[in-house]
Amino acid sequence: MTKPDTLLSVRNLSIDFHLRTHVLHAVRNVSFDLKRGQTMALVGESGSGKSVTARALMRIIDKPGRMIGGQILLDGPNGPVDVARFKEGSREVLAIRGGRIGLIFQEPMSSLSPVHTIGSQIVEAVRLHRRVSKSEARARCVELLRQVEIPQPELMADRYTFEFSGGMRQRAMIAMALACDPQVLIADEPTTALDVTTQAEILDLIKRLQDARGMAMLLITHDMGIVAEVADDVAVMRFGKIVEQGPVDDIFHASQHPYTRQLLDATVKLESGAAIRALPASLTPSVEPVLSVRNLTKIYGAPSRMFARSGGRGLVAVDDASLDLFPGENLGIVGESGSGKTTLGRMILRIVEPTSGTVTYRADATSAPVDVTALGKVDLRRYHQDVRLIFQDPFASLNPRMTVKQIIGDPLVISKGMSGKAVEVRVAELMGKVGLDPLAMERYPHAFSGGQRQRIGIARALALNPTVIVADEATSALDVSIRSQILDLMIDIQKQLHLSFIFISHDISVVRYFCDRVAVMHRGKIVEVGDAETICTNPSQPYTRRLISSVPNPDPRNKRMLHRLRTDQV
Fold first, then answer.
1. Which residues does the UniProt record annotate as the domain ABC transporter (predicted)?
2. What are residue 460's DSSP bridge partners?
3. H or E segment to which residue 386 belongs
4. Most buried one in 65, 260, 442, 476, CB count within 10 A?
5. Does residue 461 sit within a domain?
6. What is the pLDDT of residue 265?
7. Residues 43, 234: contact at Cβ < 8 Å?
8. Closest Cα to residue 265, out of 46, 562, 480?
9. How far apart are CA 237 and CA 54, in angstroms?
10. Average pLDDT per block of 10 residues along the chain, 570 residues long
11. What is the number of alpha carbons within 13 Å of residue 63 lying toward its C-beta?
12. How far apart, in whole angstroms, are the C-alpha atoms of residue 340 and residue 524?
């Protein structure tokens, strides 16, 4: 039996995936309650079973998975109904999906149809569960878009997915999930693909809608900061089992399970400051920077460098950016999606050609400065040996048809002319340096986890003994504990090899942990540069204050104490 305030009870839920070689026990004897007006956070790393559990509540289980036991008791007018008893695809299940239980997907770009307007998709969801005319469903659609704070909802209903920003797409996804006033809302990593300020706005929106409607919410996330701000109760999953659950204050301040404490310890707190390390002595005015960027501009649509400013035509991605990187320094470039930070990093590497401005590189104190923007192909290849890139996505950036030895050794073969045993010895050395077993060098990327793949990417970047590494969102695709390990690994490598890092990120808390100085970008411009600790504790610019106020505070006792600045306040 369910308690009066309980809208959904899960009891001993178990799900297996029958694979070719073995049976994967994805979910094992999971039990929890979702209460009216409250939020239960289901947390854990990738592969813990949290998303499989959440989707099972709506009887959405990908093949070859199947539910092998348990109850899903959903409150109804005549008492609780066991959803687990219904056949998949039955009328009862279809009535529950989107009707009594709503789902916000993780990635709206892949869950919204690109060939139908946003409005037509919401109208379809309304008419699927309610007997209303097209005009009534359209009116309901417009009202939902207004509730999720999409401007000009009548106009935007006729737009397509690609015409919406990431945050707007997520708002449309929320509107669709709420189309038929569900009792229970499942939010499966609803902000993973969003930058920190948009994330804050979406979380606040979901909370306001939940309070107004009295819904129970199941929040799936690996971000303990979000859990601290949003959740009332927490269940921690690992290897398909709930290892600990309870009120959010108890989980954060009196956790009993070692894995829960590991997740909490790995959370990079905004208040914690930089990682414990000595700042490089090179950060003094007497030392020449290893890289100098001066007035660097990128205008897409501009005909040439000569006419960069003519008529103001084109899209200005980076506008007159200037900064220095010193030997042994970690310089962070932080900003929202579309701020120009990745374009700036790629212009420094000459992957993207600048419209105007210069990038000057000095290999060491005795070397003459080189204008990177004027280098020919041969000299540019030499520059790329010294200045290397770590990519954002460890899954997409490694060739699945190459072994780890080939991936790491490729730069050695191409740039150094090495072959045979020499490559193997160097690859083994690099794998050991990044914490990987050299005996695994003949394996392919699919055999490695996300964190291990990023270590492979770091080893590849180190292969040619660079002096500078540009890390573009190098930890954003990783779980919190893996992210912490990769950051610490890069700090250790920097100390050993005396590298300089340009660390590009939208997460200012991670930048504060890793970097000595920070450059803040907004709408293509660098609006503030300074010491990381000073920028994060006493920023001078309104936009920087907005970024900091948007970072989830990983302490439920300080829930919602920070005043968040909205976009229109900047």
1. 10-264, 291-548
2. none
3. helix 377-386
4. 260
5. yes
6. 83
7. yes
8. 480
9. 12
10. 77 93 92 96 90 92 91 90 88 87 82 91 90 93 93 92 86 91 92 82 92 94 90 95 96 94 75 53 66 95 55 80 95 91 95 96 86 94 94 84 95 91 95 93 89 92 95 84 87 91 90 93 95 91 89 76 46
11. 1
12. 5
Helix or strand (DSSP H, E) at 196 = helix 196-213
Residue 138 host element (H or E): helix 134-147
pTM reported for the whole predicted model: 0.81
Cα separation, 504 vs 279, whole angstroms: 19
For residue 295, what are the CA distances in angstroms to 94, 113, 528?
A: 58, 41, 15
Does the residue 472 lie in any domain?
yes
Q: Which helix (H) or strand (E) holds 6?
A: strand 6-18
Rounded distance between C-alpha atoms, residue 25 and residue 23, angstroms: 6
Is 434 a member of any domain? yes
The owner of tokens 């007035």 is 295
Q: Tell me the angle at which helices 196-213 and 542-550 cross, rounded to the nearest 10 degrees.
A: 50
Report yes or no: 423 and 412 within 8 Å, Cβ to Cβ.
Answer: yes
pLDDT at residue 88, as a whole number: 82
Nearest to 41 by CA among 264, 184, 213, 223: 223
CB atoms within 10 A of CB 432: 12
Please count the helices (runs of H) and the strands (runs of E) in the chain: 20, 20
pLDDT reported for residue 3: 58
Domain hosting residue 527, numbered range: 291-553
Residue 320's domain is classified under what CATH number? 3.40.50.300
